[in-house]
Amino acid sequence: MSVAENFRAIKSELDSVARDEKIILVAVTKNHGVELMREAIDAGATDIGENRVQEAAEKFPTLGRKVTRHLIGHLQTNKVKPAVKLFDLIQSVDSLHLAAALDKAAGQMQKVQDVLIQVNAAREAQKSGVLLEDLEPLIKFVDAAKNLRLRGLMMIAPNFSDVEECRPLFRQMRNLFDKLKTSRKDFDFLSMGMTHDYKIAVEEGANLVRIGTAIFGERLYSRV
């Protein structure tokens, strides 16, 4: 199947299971070229996700399409300024230090930067994300920041051989999201689920999924 066919099939599936809220499909284009990105957008993709600031800086100016641009990969503080310039939604805020740097950079650009807080619910040492016990101070900081707008939460689940093992983590995140949403304006997005686990993530309440391989195929690490 082509990129367009893959995208439409997944989008149709998500639309068919959506309950009261729309499920946003973010097409993750890491290591895939601009032509494939255009094919997905022309098939209906409205949201594009990139993992690296430098790759986005190379690709976005030549894309020739208007989309909502998501940063879904770990962000280093030395890449904060170009990230604020390039992305509509930064999903991977995981520390007070990073949040402060983003707030400063956004203020310098006279921009209110939409962000998600990335939570490391499974406590994986190799993954980014704030631990649950450290979440409250980070939320309070972002809530108070003049140039940041907290739009929700993001989580990357472990790559379990049995994908059903992800379900309790997704459910825990949805419960946390619902609790936080009651007292926050514009707190709209729960970003969970990738190619291998998005179906369970959606069943447990994700309203934003990040899918690359199922749309574009395996990543092309020799990308020009």
Account of the 3D structure:
With 224 residues, the protein is an alpha/beta fold. It has nine helices and eight strands. Strands 7-6-5-4-3-2-1-8 form an eight-stranded parallel sheet. Helix 4 crosses helix 5 (96-108) and helix 5 (96-108) runs parallel beside helix 6 (135-144). The chain is globular, with a radius of gyration of 17 Å. The two termini are 23 Å apart. The mean pLDDT is 94.
Q: What are the main properties of this structure?
A:
224 residues; 17% strand; globular; alpha/beta; eight-stranded parallel sheet; 40% helix
Largest sheet: 8 strands, parallel
Instruction: Return the structural class.
Output: alpha/beta
Number of helices: 9
Q: From the alpha carbons, calculate the radius of gyration and give it in angstroms.
A: 17 Å
Output the strand order for the largest sheet: 7-6-5-4-3-2-1-8
Note poorly predicted spans.
Answer: none
Number of β-strand runs:
8
Secondary-structure element series: HEHEHEHEHEHEHEHEH
* Average pLDDT metric: 94
Please specify the SSE layout and strand pairing:
Blueprint: H1 3-17, E1 24-28, H2 34-42, E2 47-50, H3 53-63, E3 68-71, H4 80-86, E4 89-93, H5 96-108, E5 113-118, H6 135-144, E6 148-154, H7 167-181, E7 189-191, H8 198-203, E8 208-211, H9 213-216
Parallel strand pairs: 1-2, 1-8, 2-3, 3-4, 4-5, 5-6, 6-7
Helix pairs in contact: 2-3, 4-5, 5-6
Structure, briefly:
This protein is an alpha/beta fold.
